[in-house]
Amino acid sequence: MTRIVTLIVLSILATAALMQTMGCGETGSAQVRAAQEVYVPPGEHDRYYAFLSGGQSGSVFVVGIPSGRLIREIPVFEPRAAYGYAVHPNDPRRRELESTGGAWGDTHHPAPSETNGVYDGRYLWINDLANGRLARVRLDVFETDRILKIPNLQGAHGIAVVSPNTKYIGVNGEFEQPTDGLATNPAPYTSVVAFVDPESMQVKFEVRVNGNIDIADSSKDGRYFFATVYNLEQGKDMGGMIQFDRDALAAIDIAAAEKAVAEGKGVVRNGVPILDPENVPGVLTLIPVPKNPHGVNVTPDGRYAIASGKLSPTVTIVDVKTLKIVAEPEVGLGPLHTTFDDRGNAFTSLFLDSQVVKWNIDKAVAGTSDYIVDRINVHYNIGHLQAAGGETMKPHGDFLLALNKLSKDQYLPVGPDMPEAQELIDISGEKMRMLAAFPTPPEPHDAVFMAASLLKSKVKQVFDLGADSVKEGGESVVRTGPDAVTVNMTMIRSAYTPETIEVREGDHVTFRMTNVETIRDMTHGFALPDHGLNVSLPPGATKEITIETPKPGVYWFYCTNFCSALHLEMRGRLVVQPKDGPVKITDWRAGQNVAGLQVPGVPSTEKSNGR
Ligand code: RUQ
Ligand code: CUA
Ligand code: CA
Predict the structure, then answer these.
(1) Which of 155, 190, 322, 515 has the fewest CB atoms within 10 Å of its CB?
(2) What is the pLDDT of residues 112-149, one digit of tens each?
(3) Nearest Cα to 277, choosing from 288, 290, 286?
(4) Distance from residue 582's CA to the centre of ligand 1 (Å)
C-alpha cells in the first residue's frame, strides 16, 4: 500500500517537473512568452541595431535587438585580423593608431549624431579612455573613419554629443593633471572638457574643471554640457577622493564659453584654447551632488538633469533652466546611470543591489512617496543601462538593455574569468519583464539603440569606386624607383590581376588594390604569408599598403574571405629574387612604365643572367 502511494506521489512530482520543463507551469508560460518576443526567425531582421562599446576590446559591438545576435564588431582602437583592420605596421589606420596613442584602446561610450534631438544615422563617436582619444565611425559603412588624439586631457571618459543638432562632441578628462601639464607643479590637479567639431574632428576649445570629470550629457537645447565630478576633493588617492559628502555636477554654458573663446580669453596650449572658469566667470556652474556621482542623464523633455549618486543611494534631480536641485529621491544602493521611456519614467541601474529600479520623474519631483514603480533583479552588478531611444527626445519605451559587469553562474563556465552579460528587459508595461540574456567578449560599458528602419536604408551596398581605385584593364606593375615597385591590382571572383609579381630583395612594394565587385557581400581578402600583411576589401573598396622588406622567396598571397567555389584558388605569387640573384624586373602589362627607370646593375626589362 505504502509503495503504491509512494509511486503515485512520485509520478505526480515527475509530471509537475515535466510540465515545468515543457513550459506549462507559470514560469514556463512566462518564458514561452519572453522567447516569442525575442525570437527573430531565420531570414528576418531585428528591430534595432544596438551599438555596444567594446571596452578593452577597443571596438564597438553591433547587436541585433531583440534577438541579441552579434551582427558585427567594428574595430576602432585595436587591430583586427577578422576585418583586415590595422594589422600591418604600414596600414594607414595602424599608423594613425600608433601616432595617436597606440594600437589598443578602451571604449566606453557610443554617441550617435543627432538632428533635431533624434539620431540621424550618420555617425557614431566612441571614446578611448586609455589613450585620450575620440573616434568617429561612419554608419553607412560601419567602419572607423577618423581618430583624434585630444590634447591637454588624460582619460577620455564620458562623451556626449551636444543636442539637438550635434554642434560638438564633448569629451571629459577623467584623470586630472597638473594644471600646466608639468609634473613639478604642486598645485591641485584639474581636468578639461574638450569640445570637438563633429565634421573637422578638431578640438575647438576646452574648459577647465577642478578635480576630475566622469560622465557627460548635454541639455536638449544645447545650452549646457553636463559632467559629473567625483573627485572635487582633488585627492590623489582613494582616501582623498571620498572625503566630501558632496562632489559636483558641472554645467558648462556652451554659448558663454564660445563667446569667451572668441574674445581670446582662452590660454592656448597644444594648439587649443583652454578657458579657466576662475578667469571667465559664468562659463562653469558647479552643482553640489552626493557622493562621488557617476552618470548624468537629461530627461527626454529636457527639463531635468539626473545625476546618479553612486556612493549615495540617491539620484539628484536638477532643473535644467535654473540649475537648482529640485529633488533627491532615494532609489537603492549604488545608482550609476539612468535612462528613460516615453511615459515619464526613469530607470536607474543599481550596481550594489544588482537591480534596475523604475521610478516616476514627476512624482519624485513632487515628493510623493509612491515614486518607485518597480524593481527587477539583474545578473549581476549592473553598470550602464539603456532604453531604446532613451538618450534622445523620443524614447521608444519598449526595450531596455542592462549591461552587467559580472555574469558569475549565468553561462557555461569558461574558466575563472566569465563572459560579460547583457540582459534584455521589456519596459512596455507597468512592470518590467526579463526577456533574454546574451554574453559578449569583454567588456561592454554602454550601448545605444538605433531603429533598424532608420539605418537600414542608409547603409551602403558597395563602396563607391573612387578616383584612387584601380580599374579593370588598368592593372600594372610599375617600377617607380631603383628600389620601389607599385602593384596596381584588381580582385574579382576569384582571381587577382596580376597573379604574379616579381621583385627584388630590398624593394619596397606598394600594393594598390581595388575589389571591383559590384555586389554586396563579395569581400576579398589579401593576406601575404610571413610579411604581416592582412587586409580585407569589401566590394568597391580600394586600399594601399607598402611592404618595406620582402624576404627572398616565393610567397603566395591569398584570399581570406570565402568568395566562390574557386576561393581556394584565388591566390597569386610574390616572387622576391635575392639581391644578387637572377633578377626579372617585372614589366607586367607595363613596359612603358618601366622604360627610363634603370635599376642599378640590372637591365630594366625582363632578362635574367641565367644563373
Ligand atoms: S562608465 S558603469 Cu565608462 Cu560609462 Cu558607468
Ligand atoms: Cu576572394 Cu575568396
Ligand atoms: Ca568625492
Answers:
(1) 322
(2) 999 999 999 999 999 999 999 999 999 999 999 999 99
(3) 286
(4) 61
133-138 and 143-149 as β-strands: parallel, antiparallel, unpaired? antiparallel
Q: Which atom of ligand 2 is nearest to the CA of 525?
A: 1
Residue 556 CB less than 6 A away from ligand 2: no
Per-residue pLDDT of 226-283, as tens digits, reads: 999 999 999 999 999 999 999 999 999 999 999 999 999 999 999 999 999 999 999 9
* Cα 281 versus chain centre, distance: 35
Ligand 2 contacts CB of residue 72 (under 6 A): no
Which triple of cell numbers denotes residue 92? 594607414
Say yes or no: CB of residue 445 within 6 Å of ligand 1.
yes
- Cα Rg, the chain, nearest whole Å: 29
Q: 314 CA to middle of ligand 3, Å?
A: 15
Question: Residue length, the chain?
Answer: 611
Rounded-to-integer distance, Cα 88 and Cα 97, Å: 12
- 10-residue mean pLDDT profile of the chain (611 residues): values are 46 43 64 96 98 97 98 97 96 97 98 98 98 98 98 97 98 93 80 98 97 97 98 95 97 98 97 96 97 98 98 98 98 98 98 98 98 98 98 98 96 93 97 97 95 97 95 92 93 95 92 97 96 96 94 94 96 89 53 40 36 29
Residue 516's alpha-carbon distances to 81, 112, 466, 495, 524, in angstroms, are: 22, 31, 11, 11, 10
Ligand 1 contact, 384 CB (< 6 A): yes
- pLDDT of 456 reads 95
- Report the C-alpha gap between 59 and 107 in whole angstroms: 6
C-beta of 392 in contact with ligand 2 (< 6 A):
no
Instruction: Pick the residue whose CA is nearest to atom 2 on ligand 1.
Output: 383
Among candidate residues 513, 504, 468, the one with its CA nearest the CA of residue 485: 504
**Alpha carbon of 562 to ligand 2 centroid (Å):** 5
Nearest ligand 2 atom to the CA of 491 is 1
Instruction: Point out the ligand 2 atom lying closest to the alpha carbon of residue 493.
Output: 1
Residue 178 CA to ligand 3 centre (angstroms): 18
User: Could you tell me if the CB of 157 is within 6 A of ligand 1?
Assistant: yes
pTM of structure: 0.91
494 lines ligand 2 (CB under 6 A): yes
**CA distance readout (Å), 544 to 91, 301, 409, 514:** 8, 48, 47, 9
* Nearest to 213, CA basis, from 225, 200, 197, 229: 229
Output the CA angle 594-597-599, nearest 5 degrees: 105
Q: Give the atom of ligand 1 at the shortest distance from the alpha carbon of 349.
A: 2
Angle, in degrees to the nearest 10, between helices 26-38 and 2-21: 20
Integer Cα distance of 251 and 254 in angstroms: 9
Instruction: Say what the pLDDT of residue 25 is.
Output: 55
What pLDDT sits at residue 186? 75
336 lines ligand 1 (CB under 6 A): yes
Query: Percent of the chain beyond pLDDT 70?
Result: 91
